[in-house]
Amino acid sequence: MLDMSKLTLYGSSISGNCLKGKWAADLFGLSYDWVEIDILAGESRTDAFLAMNPNGQVPVLQIPGEGVLDQSNAILIYLAETAGSDLIPANAVDRARMMSWLFWEQYNHEASIAVRRFRKAYLGLPDADIDPQLLPKGYSALERMEAALDGQDWICGDAMTLADIALVAYTRVAHEGGYELARFPLVLDWIIRTETKLDIPHAREGL
Amino acid sequence: MLDMSKLTLYGSSISGNCLKGKWAADLFGLSYDWVEIDILAGESRTDAFLAMNPNGQVPVLQIPGEGVLDQSNAILIYLAETAGSDLIPANAVDRARMMSWLFWEQYNHEASIAVRRFRKAYLGLPDADIDPQLLPKGYSALERMEAALDGQDWICGDAMTLADIALVAYTRVAHEGGYELARFPLVLDWIIRTETKLDIPHAREGL
């Protein structure tokens, strides 16, 4: 039985979007239950799941007495605010820039790199059956990150923010989508830096 | 000459993403300059524009002494915080739910409805040359909005939030993308309600 007085995170361990919330909750020392949802087996489409989240998506955060919250980056923001984390910049402009990266992550990065990785590595599709735009779009996203990391350790500047957690989720497994991370040495260093802060294993090739 | 001591919003008047910031700044009574960028004529790809925003996208908000900020919904959040607007809920869970809708707007709603509208109405592509998934994806987004508005006046509940501004931007012109808004009576009422609050003209068919 789940403890309904605690946060519950419903997610799939193969989904970077789901792992974001898990890593953040662990980093912040928040108490929560993790419920594994096998998305490949259709567990996010069952009647019971849809009764909880009609959108049929993971991750979902169940908040005691408050119902559910979805969208991975909204969950990240909520967990950081709840924990009083300094991963949300106090300065309004810095905070807005972090928000900008979070929206960019979903629209440009996740929508290309995560989608290609899922189709290639989990659906097992041959390259010829995958939208050919996803490869150049993903590389364009990685190029923007490489440029952002020129002269600074973290995506938003000298300090780690939620943008690093959001962006590392699929960047660290981009090779599973057919992207050559070796082309992006600053991104590679940043992946290790972020994985180390989050205390999670290295996922990339050659380590 | 632009007044560099004021906010400057670079945007295209045919882009809902750009209009969001304009409407919000007007609603909040913020002082700003609007610089029209003709995206169809390539004005967001000139050397001068790219020097300001290497991402080559509008909208861009120039903040006095602070450089630029992009991503339409990050701009919305920044403007609302700057103005002390109550369109950002004070309660943490309500605020997180609004954030969830803002991320959903970009990933699910804009990425289908705005994209199809641009290809159909501005690039003049015939339906056969437009990704066939955009129509059902956009209708699915409109269905979710219709369900959300059942029993409440605004997307997040009884009060208007930034989610209403973000979502109305392309919902009010969805018919230009080939979507039949008449199927969604609650959405139609909400469009008028939101346009009235924003003091902007009605854009939809049949009015």
Structure write-up:
Chain A is an alpha+beta fold and 207 residues long. Chain A folds into 2 domains: 77 residues, Glutaredoxin (3-Layer(aba) Sandwich); 107 residues, Glutathione S-transferase Yfyf (Class Pi), Chain A, domain 2 (Up-down Bundle). Helix content of chain A is 49%, strand content 9%. Chain A contains 7 helices and 4 strands; from the N terminus they run βαβαββααααα. In chain A, a hairpin with a 3-residue loop joins strand 3 and strand 4. In chain A, helix 1 packs parallel to helix 3, helix 4 runs parallel beside helix 6 and helix 6 crosses helix 7. Chain A is globular, with a radius of gyration of 17 Å. The N and C termini of chain A lie far apart (39 Å). The model of chain A has no long low-confidence stretch (mean pLDDT 95). At the A-B interface, helix 3 and helix 4 of A face helix 3 and helix 4 of B.
Please describe the structure with a list of short key phrases separated by commas or semicolons.
homodimer; 9% strand; Glutaredoxin; 4-stranded mixed β-sheet; 7 helices; 207 residues
Main structural class of chain A: alpha+beta
The total beta strand count of chain A reads 4
β-strand amount of chain A: 5-15%
Distance between the termini of chain A: 39 Å
Show the largest interface.
Answer: A-B, 31 and 31 residues
Radius of gyration of chain A: 17 Å
Largest sheet of chain A, if any? Answer: 4 strands, mixed
- The residue-averaged pLDDT of chain A reads 95
